[in-house]
Structure formats: structure tokens, C-alpha cells
Design goal:
Shape: globular
Helix content: 55-70%
Radius of gyration: 19 Å
Order of helices and strands: HHHHHHHHHH
Number of strands: 0
Number of helices: 10
């Protein structure tokens, strides 16, 4: 734990802090004192890191994870990933998200925004993540109808509402062009998963942009 000069490497504190913040977000016991939910969340993290292919729970077991678990675990990984990058820890990064839907697997999310210099690419990247994770939630939860689908799209729209502040902080905004691009992506996602009766306005009805 020494640096190049033989002194104690204080960066080790950052590592412990990162693990502590991660554990605070992941570890929990249920009312019966069981750690099943913690183990199930760990499986989601391992999938995010690309260390396992699937995080499905055995059909005889109850899935204790909350809705939006992928997003929650991804947020829990922010600090550990940042520390790993600063310390040049190799191969500690999120795996590229995979989708089972063939159409959406190759879909060019927010492509038009990437081509427009008005929208900063790092912020557009965050928008793309929202849409990909929406697809993952659709594949995970398998909504039976439009009512269930709209619950998932509403959560994604709320994340775009928060992202609007990030755009503004980077001298940009989700204006008319951006709104149409994002709306079209939501529509294409609904069509890609077979919800042909989805209403384009209802899909993004909770927007503040």
C-alpha cells in the first residue's frame, strides 16, 4: 500500500470509501432478516460488469429486487467506477448493454442528436443510456399491455426531465428538435416491442421539455 516513494498511498482511503458507498446502496435485509435481496442485487451488478450473462432468479424463488433495479445498481456503481478509472484499475468497467430484441439491439439511439453539434455528446450518451435501460426494463418486466408499458416510459421520461438540467449546464437544451428526436425514439421502442397501439404523446406525456 505504498506509493512510488515508499510512503503510504492515501488513495487506498478512496477505495474503501467507494466500496462503502456501494455497500450502503446495495446491502439490505428484508423483514425476515434474509439477505436474499442483497444477493439478487449483487447478481444484477455482476451482469452490469459483464461477469455473468443473466441475473434471473430461480423460478421457485421470490425476486425481492425493486423495479428499476438496473438503474439503481448502475447508479450505485458510479463512484466505484470513477475511483477505478482514477487508479487505472484494468478491466473494471460496465459491459456494453445487450438486448434480446434484434431490432433494438442494432437501433441507433439518438443518432440525430449525435450528428447535431448543439447537443454535447457526453450528455447525449446519458440519454442513450436511459433509452437502452428502458429497453432492458421492457425485456425484464415484459409489460402485458399499454398501461404497464406507460409506467416504464414514464420513469424514463422523468430521467430525461432530470437530464434537461445537465443539457442546460452544458450550454444546450432539449428544444424542439431534441424533443422530436427523443419522442421518435420512444415511439420506435414501443413499435420494436410490438406495442403498435401506443400513443406517441402518451409515451412522453410526463415531459418537462
Amino acid at each position: 500500500l505504498a506509493d512510488q516513494h515508499g510512503r503510504f498511498d492515501t488513495r487506498v482511503y478512496k477505495v474503501f470509501e467507494a466500496f462503502q458507498s456501494f455497500e450502503d446502496l446495495v446491502f439490505r435485509l428484508d423483514e425476515a432478516g434474509s439477505a436474499a435481496a442483497y444477493k439478487q442485487s449483487t447478481a444484477t451488478v455482476l451482469k452490469l460488469l459483464g461477469l455473468i450473462e443473466a441475473d434471473e432468479i430461480h423460478p421457485d424463488c421470490y425476486d425481492s429486487r425493486e423495479k428499476g433495479e438496473f438503474r439503481r445498481m448502475r447508479e450505485a456503481m458510479i463512484r466505484p467506477l470513477r475511483i477505478a478509472d482514477r487508479l487505472n484499475v484494468p478491466d473494471f468497467k460496465l459491459a456494453e448493454p445487450t438486448l434480446t430484441n434484434k431490432k433494438m439491439r442494432v437501433y441507433p439511439f439518438l443518432e440525430a442528436m449525435y450528428r447535431d453539434h448543439w447537443f454535447p455528446n457526453p450528455v447525449v450518451d446519458q440519454g442513450r443510456t436511459i433509452l437502452v435501460e428502458l429497453c432492458q426494463e421492457i425485456e425484464r418486466q415484459k409489460p402485458a399491455g399499454l398501461k404497464e408499458l406507460y409506467v416504464l416510459t414514464e420513469a424514463a421520461v422523468e430521467r430525461f426531465n432530470d437530464l434537461e438540467e445537465v443539457f442546460e449546464a452544458n450550454d444546450s437544451e432539449i428544444e424542439t428538435v431534441g424533443r422530436e428526436i427523443i419522442g421518435d425514439n420512444f415511439w420506435d421502442i414501443a413499435m420494436g416491442y410490438g406495442f403498435e397501439d401506443a400513443d406517441s404523446e402518451e409515451l412522453i406525456s410526463g415531459r418537462n421539455w
